[in-house]
Design brief:
Blueprint lengths: L2 E5 L4 H13 L4 E6 L19 E5 L5 H10 L2 E4 L6 H6 L2 H21 L2 E7 L25 H20 L3 E6 L2 E2 L8 H10 L4 E4 L9 E2 H14 L4 E5 L8 H11 L7 E4 L14 H7 L7 H14 L1 H18 L2
Parallel strand pairs: 1-2, 1-4, 2-3, 4-5, 5-6, 6-10, 7-9, 8-11
Bound molecules: nicotinamide-adenine-dinucleotide and thymidine-5'-diphosphate.
């Protein structure tokens, strides 16, 4: 029976994780610390709201007093809270440094005094970009080379976690995962933006030439990977987590969506590219497979269809978020 402190549990992945964890580990309890920024939404957690093992505290990970108190009550910290959107980091990087770097520092400092385990959720974007025409993949040994303020701030947080391990003996694990997709993802992100645009009769907006490759990981496979690491991961270890999408590029994803939604390709609009846009991400997940027996179970094509259905059936969830998300793209001209 463990007490988990989850940060950022009202966001996309954190809320999926909390629901997943309480269903798989009903004996455990979870406290969710979340500042409810534009990306945080208590509606994501409707199914656990009445669970006596779940409690929510609205608060900022930069608040040392709150963090100290909650860390004091926990056996393990699972740290999701972050500013997570690359396009927002280009328009306003400061919040990314504050939350992702300084917020992680505040948590680490509290955790090292309690000597409990810290699990850090990070991204494959810290490694930079791979070439389109190569078969290369990121591994745990790939050097860091982030290109966006978002990925640079996540890289800094990863370095801080390892430095606390080496300097203060902090017990930690890190997962660097690829692009997630699935229910409750904010409509500012690529797949939900395309589905909700099409639902509104709008075109899908493809950046640049569309030949940008992401390694799509279903959010439930990500939750299963974190579970495997928390149960049997080695302290001080990093695990890369990736999906089954096989080098599909953004234009191909857009076409698949149009096909599943019975719409024609004239709904594709090519828009201005993102500055510093990483060409290709691909993750070699053989360490977590070999050491912990994890592998992704949700195929990209099938679960893309499920994701479309989820957004079609949950307009009441995304509708209030859509207008503000599109305001962002008015500012960036995309
Ligand atoms: P999200 O933007 O959907 O959610 C972030 C959550 O953190 C929100 O609930 C927000 O309110 C909360 N938050 C932000 N700043 C906070 C602060 N200062 N104090 C407390 N709470 C705060 O993000 P997500 O997509 O769920 O990503 C979760 C984690 O996974 C992040 O660390 C992100 O870097 C990482 N990650 C995400 C992806 C992806 O594809 N979404 C891929 C790789 C890694
Ligand atoms: P995104 O979901 O923002 O994730 P990330 O930048 O963290 O990979 O974008 C995924 C890919 O889709 C990325 O190559 C940028 C591209 N993209 C578009 O082409 N159009 C869009 O409207 C958005 C939001 C993203």
């Amino acid at each position: 029976m463990s007490k988990l402190l989850v940060t950022g549990g009202a966001g996309f992945i954190g809320s999926n994780f909390i629901s997943y964890w309480l269903s798989q580990h009903p004996e455990d309890s979870i406290t969710n610390l979340d500042a409810l920024t534009y990306a945080g939404n208590e509606a994501n957690l409707a199914d656990v709201q009445d669970n006596s093992k779940y409690s929510f505290l609205k608060g900022n990970i930069l608040d040392k007093e709150i963090v100290g108190r909650l860390v004091g009550e926990a056996d393990i910290v699972v740290h999701f809270a972050a500013e997570s959107h690359v396009d927002r980091s280009i328009l306003g990087p400061e919040a990314f440094v504050e939350t992702n770097v300084k917020g992680t520092f505040v948590l680490l400092d509290a955790v090292r005094q309690r000597k409990i385990h810290f699990h850090h959720i990070s991204t494959d974007e810290v490694f930079g970009a791979l070439a389109l025409d190569s078969a290369e993949k990121f591994t745990e040994a790939t050097p860091y080379y982030p290109h966006s303020p978002y990925s640079a701030s996540k890289a800094a947080s990863d370095h801080l976690v390892r430095a606390y391990g080496d300097t203060y003996g902090l017990a930690y694990t890190i997962t660097n995962c690829s692009n997630n997709f699935g229910p409750y993802q904010h409509p500012e992100k690529f797949i939900p933006r395309m589905i909700t645009n099409l639902s509104d009769g709008q075109p899908v907006k493809v950046y640049g030439d569309g030949k940008y490759v992401r390694d799509w990981l279903h959010v439930l496979d990500h939750c299963r990977a974190i579970d495997a690491v928390l149960q049997s991961g080695k302290s001080g270890e990093t695990y890369l987590v990736g999906g089954m999408s096989n080098d599909v590029n953004n234009l191909e994803v857009a076409k698949l969506l149009l096909q599943h939604m019975n719409l024609s390709e004239d709904k594709i609009e090519f828009v201005k590219d993102r500055p510093g846009h990483d060409r290709r991400y691909a993750v070699d997940w053989s360490r977590i497979n070999k050491d912990l027996g994890w592998e992704p179970e949700h195929s990209f094509e099938e679960w893309l269809k499920e994701t479309i259905t989820w957004y079609q059936q949950n307009e009441a969830w995304w509708r209030p978020l859509k207008e503000e998300a599109e305001q962002l793209y008015v500012k960036s001209g995309q």
